[in-house]
Amino acid sequence: MDNAVILAGGAGKRMNSEKPKVLLEVLGKPMLSWVTDACEDAGIERICVVKGHAADQIDKYLDGKFETVYQPERLGTGHAVMCAREFLEANIEGNTFIACGDAPFTDFKTIHAALEFHKLSDCAVTVITAEVSNPYGYGRIVHTQSGIAIVEEKDCTEEQRRISEISSGCYWFRTKDLLSVLPKLDRNNAQNEYYLTDTVRILSAEGKKTAAFKTDNPDAVLGANDRRGLLRLNDIARIRVIEKHLSNGIEFITTDGIVISPDVTIKGGTRILPGTILSGKTEIGAGCVIGPNTRLENTVVGDGSIMDNVVANGAYVGNHVKVGPFVQLRPAARICDFASVGDFVEIKNSVIGEGTAVAHLTYVGDSDIGKNVNFGCGTVTVNYDGTNKAKCVVKDNAFIGCNTNLIAPVTIGEAAYTAAGSTVTKDIPDGALAIERSDLHIINGYAVKKLTRHLEKGKKLIGK
């Protein structure tokens, strides 16, 4: 069984954030999650996260999914791996992948291919490298007869500075060799830190095989040290994700204002309009139109549906549904097939049945709405008494008149009607009409008298 150790102890001071650096987001997903997902996708079963700065936030985010160890002092990458010694000793028969938690473009294909190379080459350590056009600031990979060496920028000769193959900061180690070399690291350097890069030199000097695996993904080396760098990562990731969807038959008329998280799935033939933000585990079916100005988070949309100027979080929208414009779907809103939800409507924790129309200016909360129901303009389910929530049930084929207040808990029977302006406080039987209105009183001449008083008052003011 293979291991992974993810280095996530850095503070990222230049980010000016209360969050640890690895929890800052690229396309709405923490950088740490990009890396751990890549490790899992590559088939690595045992993952340990080395935490340091704001360790409690990392614990809260991971919620026990992976093992963690604490690095009490930030004494370098080598020291971070030393902190995971017990984790490594629990499974020494295999290999260990080391990666930085703030390198979101470390991809599973590279991780897996590098491991296969590492095993076939019988290496003690394999460094994942990349060829880049501007290697400034990165450690250069120098190939020698005995293996490889990593030379840091400040230590490079002029000839070495021209080398364009750089270290990604990711390694595959034979776990036994990693455990044997860690005690041999020292802090005799300008930074007074334990460098993980020194393991390559030490293992090579011991006659053990060291090699480089060059990825065809040059973005794998990218990280961010400040907000500008983080913005750059977001820009690169945004276009990469859009290009992936273009290849899968998704239509974009422009990329302006479109942000799609990497875990979002979209089926072919769907059209994404400007100003659309899709995040979390959102799933979009085939032949949909999403946008403009739509934000969907952890929301499922079926085939052939339209989402126009919609904000949805934790919602489900069925097939051939029209939602919008200007609609909010809050968690546990479920809109069934062929329903329509129109402008200025909010739905929360409710089922809207098949073929039901909630056309405009309506709030539906904590309700179970049947099939082919019609909601008139201005309907409100009054579900909260200041302490507790209560449920409304509207059965199939009911008709809710304009400006109806449904005071929960209440049930509207099948094919029942409510008259416009009614406040319904009792259950309505199937097929019945509920009408609740006070008498209309007409006071003749009232408006004329009121206008006369205003005119007289105005004349007095002018006279002053």
TrEMBL record:
Pathway: Nucleotide-sugar biosynthesis; UDP-N-acetyl-alpha-D-glucosamine biosynthesis; N-acetyl-alpha-D-glucosamine 1-phosphate from alpha-D-glucosamine 6-phosphate (route II): step 2/2; Bacterial outer membrane biogenesis; LPS lipid A biosynthesis; Nucleotide-sugar biosynthesis; UDP-N-acetyl-alpha-D-glucosamine biosynthesis; UDP-N-acetyl-alpha-D-glucosamine from N-acetyl-alpha-D-glucosamine 1-phosphate: step 1/1. Residues 249-464 are annotated as: N-acetyltransferase. Mg(2+) binds at residues 102, 225. Residues 4-215 form the Nucleotidyl transferase domain. Keywords: Acyltransferase, Cell shape, Cell wall biogenesis/degradation, Cytoplasm, Magnesium, Metal-binding, Multifunctional enzyme, Nucleotidyltransferase, Peptidoglycan synthesis, Repeat, Transferase. It catalyses: alpha-D-glucosamine 1-phosphate + acetyl-CoA = N-acetyl-alpha-D-glucosamine 1-phosphate + CoA + H(+); N-acetyl-alpha-D-glucosamine 1-phosphate + UTP + H(+) = UDP-N-acetyl-alpha-D-glucosamine + diphosphate. GO terms for molecular function: glucosamine-1-phosphate N-acetyltransferase activity; magnesium ion binding; UDP-N-acetylglucosamine diphosphorylase activity. It is found in: Cytoplasm. Gene3D superfamilies: Hexapeptide repeat proteins (2.160.10.10), Spore Coat Polysaccharide Biosynthesis Protein SpsA, Chain A (3.90.550.10). InterPro entries: Bifunctional_GlmU, GlmU-like, GlmU_C_LbH, NTP_transferase_dom, Nucleotide-diphossugar_trans, Trimer_LpxA-like_sf. Its EC number is 2.7.7.23, 2.3.1.157. One of its GO terms (cellular component) is cytoplasm. Residues 228-248 are annotated as: Linker. GO terms for biological process: cell morphogenesis; cell wall organization; lipid A biosynthetic process; peptidoglycan biosynthetic process; regulation of cell shape; UDP-N-acetylglucosamine biosynthetic process. Acetyl-CoA binds at residues 383-384, 420, 437. Its main location: cytoplasm. It is an enzyme of class 2 (transferase). Binds 1 Mg(2+) ion per subunit. Its cofactor is Mg(2+). The active site is at 360 (proton acceptor). Pfam families: NTP_transferase. Catalyzes the last two sequential reactions in the de novo biosynthetic pathway for UDP-N-acetylglucosamine (UDP-GlcNAc). The C-terminal domain catalyzes the transfer of acetyl group from acetyl coenzyme A to glucosamine-1-phosphate (GlcN-1-P) to produce N-acetylglucosamine-1-phosphate (GlcNAc-1-P), which is converted into UDP-GlcNAc by the transfer of uridine 5-monophosphate (from uridine 5-triphosphate), a reaction catalyzed by the N-terminal domain. This is Bifunctional protein GlmU. It comes from Candidatus Faeciplasma pullistercoris. The lineage of its organism: Bacteria, Bacillati, Bacillota, Clostridia, Eubacteriales.
